[in-house]
UniProtKB/TrEMBL annotation:
Protein name (Swiss-Prot/TrEMBL): Uncharacterized protein
Phylogenetic placement of the source organism: Eukaryota, Metazoa, Spiralia, Lophotrochozoa, Platyhelminthes
InterPro entries in the cross-refs: Thioredoxin-like_sf, TXNDC15
Protein's organism: Schistosoma mattheei
Domain of life: Eukaryota
């Protein structure tokens, strides 16, 4: 049965590869292609989940080379990782679409992890913006996709361009995709949001006020220059006539 699992683990990263990995896929049948139940994994179940069978394997062969590299004859451990935050409304809105994606690809495991758990193991400025989808191959990041873009066709194109996999069931969000989600919590007063807006408005007000003051100063300065030019012009004219 295809499922999204919310978990915590460790993995290494390498530079993005341009090759298409041959993934070890789950068997597809009518049962696992018809249900979208979410399974939550405990941390105790995760010890071996991200351990790569080839810890030193790298995607270094030339895709233009027709000679078979030994790694091309082996199947890779592939899955989709959904990184989200339980305090992010974009994460909450995108979760049903990720469930639908997992149901459409029963042959490909799809997991979920909270961004706080991810940052414990790998701090990155890119994680300041969630949700995100990452393709993980042999414990290494192959590519990523903005999870806030809830276009299922775009997600399918993302998987196809990187893994050459097609959905096994129609891409659509069902009522069941909204169920069994992690608990999201949002502050009703949104104090931090209000404070950030207040600081932003005050900053913009200060910038505008400073700009107005400077404009007035420059206007006054140029008026004084114009007055002086007019005065000296008249003064020189009178001297000319008197001479």
């Amino acid at each position: 049965m295809t499922e999204i699992s919310f978990l915590q683990s460790v993995w290494s990263t390498t530079e993005q590869s341009h090759i298409i990995p041959q993934c070890k896929l789950l068997k597809f049948n009518w049962i696992n292609g018809s249900y979208s139940n979410v399974k939550f994994l405990h941390k105790a179940q995760l010890s071996d989940l991200f351990n790569s069978p080839w810890p030193i394997s790298q995607f270094t062969w030339d895709p233009g080379n027709h000679a078979k590299h030994p790694d091309q004859l082996r199947l890779h451990e592939c899955y989709i990782l959904f990184i989200f935050s339980t305090t992010c409304r974009f994460s909450e809105a995108s979760l049903p679409y990720i469930n639908a994606l997992a149901r459409a690809y029963p042959q490909l495991p799809v997991y979920g992890i909270q961004v706080d758990d991810y940052l414990v193991h790998k701090w990155s400025l890119r994680m300041l913006f969630v949700p995100k989808l990452k393709i993980i191959v042999n414990g290494k990041i192959l590519n990523e996709y903005s999870g806030s873009d809830v276009d299922l066709d775009g997600m399918a194109d993302f998987i196809w361009s990187n893994m050459r996999l097609l959905p096994r069931v129609p891409l659509r969000v069902l009522p069941s995709d909204y169920e069994n989600a992690p608990q999201f919590s949002f502050e009703s007063n949104a104090v931090c949001l209000l404070l950030s807006w207040l600081v932003t408005i005050m900053g913009l007000g200060f910038i505008c006020a400073t700009a107005v003051v400077r404009l007035q100063w420059f206007t006054s300065f140029f008026n004084h220059i114009s007055t002086l030019e007019f005065f000296f012009g008249n003064f020189n004219g009178r001297q000319h006539y008197s001479g």
